[in-house]
Amino acid sequence: MEIGKLSRILVAIDGSENSMDAADYGISLAKADNAELIVINIIHTPASALTFYGESSFIQFIKKSKSDAEEWFGKIRKKASEHGVQVKTEVMEEIQSIPAAIVNYAQDKKADLIIVGTRGRTGFKRLLLGSVARDVVTYAGIPVMVVK
Length: 148
Description:
By secondary structure, the protein is an alpha/beta fold. The chain has one domain: Rossmann fold, CATH 3.40.50.620. β4, α5 and β5 form a beta-alpha-beta unit.
């Protein structure tokens, strides 16, 4: 990768305002560098959830989560299309660590940049940097942009 020139940008979203703003930054950067834009949503599915909630509730949770993600992806695709940017999207289920899944996905796809929002949907408004963003910044081997 040439310094300052991006070829593949990964944006991780959870539907929060911060993550959708991160997607907007991803679109702008992808347009500027004619880069590939990949947007992912990770559904945290710890094995204990199946036991605790039961199979039918767990299946409903997965279906609802995927439906929500498709709605968010639709908004991002529309905005990206308006700017002449093509977007690849993917929903992933992760049983262990969301930050690890983001970092590993970026590594597997050879992304040049990861973009995340400062805080997700957890509602901990007092935190300046959410735990997912913090861990992605800490463990990623590539630059990370954190969007407030």
